[in-house]
Amino acid sequence: MRSDRTEQPDTGADATETTSGSTAEARGARRAVTLFPLLVLLAGVLGLVSPGTFSGGGEAVPYLLGVVMFCMGVTMTPQDFKGVAKRPWAVALGLVAHYIFMPGLGWLIAHALHLSPQLAAGVILVGCAPSGTASNVVTYLARGDVALSVSVATVSTVVAPLVTPPLTLLLAGEYLPVDAGSMVTDILKTVLLPVLAGLLVRLVAARLVKRALPVLPWLSALTIAVIVAVVVAGSADAIKSAALMVLLAVVLHNGLGLALGYGAGRLAGLGEPASRAMSFEVGMQNSGLAASLATAHFSPLAALPAAVFSVWHNVSGALAAAWLSRRGR
């Protein structure tokens, strides 16, 4: 879910129409990200109480993730990539912080809590995933630097096939066997190719896409909710004994990531709005990708941390955004 907000000059009717469209899209994105945790929580409950309804759905998870990433690609514009060139230092800092803090925190938390091999690998895999699909919307709600948020999220997603598999092998390999080569292929198929396809559609059918933009956050939210339901259903028997430990791991992982991301921005002298963007780009993860990879390469139980993260990081992100927005005023 992306806000896709760009500054438009006020040059008359065309500008008014563009601004109106951007406002409608931003309003839809805000509603989606606000209701998203409730939707995902409901999906998780359904998967838990009626696992048979979603049995056999594991094979569909990569395709569902492809839908989410296609929606992300459709909301991208060439301006997103120009933003990287305008502030390469800030984007590089966000990228390095994201792929150092979150994987490292995942490894430390797995060790500190003495998680089982499956859960430990799942927590680490969440940390090795790229930025979350709702991070820039939450940055917007927090009155942060949306342009920087979009740039970091874009780059972290594009480089994921090269970064996520080796990091997972390095940090989770002590718990479970990791086929990094196969993981690269899966990320290319379920993340990079759908994003590029969405970007291409945006370029060749811009008018049609603009009409559909307000619906895309809801489509992404519903699709991720289905992924969570499938993941929870696959490990329903183990959730009762592991749920509290997984929740603790996720809360620590996300909370420390948000704090370290904000701190990195402040220490680098990026300013308050950019530091807020850094916080959400580091602390919010593409948990849908983590769930898909965990299901395909480990087990449904290993995907449980990603399912819990899907709910929690949107709750914590929305709360943090509300607090920061009020503080900003």
UniProtKB/TrEMBL annotation:
Residues 1-26 are annotated as: Disordered. Pfam families: SBF (PF01758). InterPro entries: BilAc:Na_symport/Acr3 (IPR002657), Bilac:Na_transpt (IPR004710), Na+/solute_symporter_sf (IPR038770). The keyword Zinc-finger does not apply. It is found in: Membrane. Residues 10-26 have a biased composition (Low complexity). It is a multi-pass membrane protein. Keywords: Membrane, Transmembrane, Transmembrane helix. The chain crosses the membrane at residues 32-54, 60-77, 89-113, 119-141, 148-171, 191-209, 216-236, 242-265. Its main location: membrane. It comes from the Bacteria. This is Bile acid:sodium symporter family protein. It comes from Streptomyces axinellae.
